[in-house]
From TrEMBL:
Belongs to the ABC-3 integral membrane protein family. GO terms for cellular component: ATP-binding cassette (ABC) transporter complex. GO terms for biological process: response to zinc ion; transmembrane transport. This is Zinc ABC transporter, inner membrane permease protein ZnuB. InterPro entries: ABC_BtuC-like (IPR037294), ABC_TroCD (IPR001626). It comes from uncultured Sulfurovum sp. It is found in: Cell membrane; Membrane. It is a multi-pass membrane protein. Keywords: Membrane, Transmembrane, Transmembrane helix, Transport. The keyword Aminoacyl-tRNA synthetase does not apply.
Amino acid sequence: MIEALSYDFVQNALLAGILVSMAAGVIGSLIVVNRMVFLAGGIAHTAYGGIGVAVYFSLPIFLGASVFAVLAAILIASITLKHRERMDTFIGLMWAVGMALGVVLIDITPGYHADFMSYLFGSILAVSQSDIWFMGGLLAVIAFIMTFWYRDILAVSYDSEYANLRGINVPFFYTLILILSALTVVVAIKVVGLILVIALLTIPVYIAEKLSNTLFTMMLLSGLFSSIFTIFGLWFSYEYDISSGASIILVSAITLFSFLGVSKLLK
């Protein structure tokens, strides 16, 4: 693996993996404590519609997927805030429609033969310099927001009624969390694909949650664990010539099961 670092595409893949891992650690923690895992899954699959739009109109993939995912996040936020009892039905509908729209638009795009595997299971080795700038910019935005609004987001995440009584704009921060989740999902699709993105956002968080007593610590540990899983996943992928996205998730899952086994033995 050391000799592979001399290649630009491997360096880009490693840097992209770390940037996305840090973003996923922060946003994954918010997704878990807000019980939004299914919401994030819905956004991930809805984003495929944006990929189809980008391909059909010859737009940058990240742009199409990001705009589509953000619009889906805003729509989901506006509906689930008022009609939580209909949440599962609505998310399932968006999940199916987004995927169907993406498939149809890609199918009817003249002369385009889509590599479905790269969207479903990631293509981190194909990350470009512009992709890295996008990922770095997103991580900077997340860091900025968490620095200035950490206490408000903390209050909304753990007790929205108390936050509302304190005068915190709960709908705004709820929507903001979903928008950041949508953008993080989009960049994570490049690393592990939309099929596996939820695992990247939850497995490191689950381990970190067991070792943390504050949300801030959980975010830091989640980002650290996710970065380690990504690095070892890339090494595993390089050594055995298999899909990098699947390798990253397998490393994460093996670590999780090992952690659970050791925890059980120590009780």
